[in-house]
Specification:
This protein has about 200 residues and is of the alpha/beta class. The chain contains four helices and nine strands. Bound molecules: inosinic acid and magnesium ion (MG).
Length: about 200
């Protein structure tokens, strides 16, 4: 059965998130100190909240762009086919590109995106993700900046959704152990839609 809000418990409070995002911002800023053209790419929709907080800790010369991915679900299992729902508005050739993502799970979305964007010859191309769930990885993905590594639990809030809802929670919540076990016993993977 589809989990409801009552099945979730707080995982990262607003304070914990904000502290970590400030640290990430400082780390990225010092790594990019020689960059003249930093483009922050928000992967819609999940990364909107993270991105909007992160960019306020980055140099005022950054620019922002947005894209959206979707993946085909072949039967009950994800086929791993990812494509652009819509693409960047500007060329990235010769620029320093920082992809900002909510969570790296199987890695299918980010491995597709790294390949697609590196073909456009940016000067540098890096991933910054708020959350990393390595347990379900199907593709190796180099992640330059990670907010938090988490166990294999379904999470919502701070941009992350369950069927489009709860993106506006100001904290991250995780499915409780009982519901997570129920979910794990179910072969459907419908909760983990990209975006
Ligand atoms: P990947 O391609 O499997 O790495 O998954 C990428 C997308 O799946 C993320 O951008 C999220 O939108 C979604 N996703 C993965 N895990 C979760 C989760 O625990 N909660 C909400 N969305 C998730
Ligand atoms: Mg999603």
């Amino acid at each position: 059965m589809m989990p409801s809000f009552e099945d979730f418990e707080p995982l990262f409070t607003t304070d914990v998130l904000q502290k970590r995002i400030e640290e990430l911002g400082h780390e990225i800023s010092s790594d990019m100190v020689d960059s003249k053209n930093l483009v922050v790419v928000c992967v819609l929709k999940g990364a909107i909240v993270f991105m909007s907080d992160l960019i306020r800790h980055l140099p005022h010369t950054v620019t922002c762009d947005f894209l959206r991915l979707s993946s085909y679900q072949g039967g009950t299992q994800s086929t791993g086919t990812v494509r652009f729902d819509f693409d960047l508005t500007q060329p990235i050739k010769g620029k320093d590109v920082l992809i900002v993502e909510d969570i790296v799970d199987t890695g299918l979305s980010m491995s597709f995106l790294l390949k697609a964007l590196s073909a456009r010859e940016p000067r540098t191309l890096k991933i910054c993700t708020l959350l990393d769930k390595p347990a379900r990885r199907r593709r190796e993905v180099p992640i330059a900046y990670t907010g938090f590594q988490i166990e294999d639990r379904f999470v919502i809030g701070y941009g992350l959704d369950l069927e489009g809802r709860y993106r506006n929670l100001p904290y991250v919540a995780a499915l409780n152990a009982k519901k997570q076990a129920e979910l794990d016993g179910n072969s459907e993977d419908a909760l983990h839609a990209p975006g």
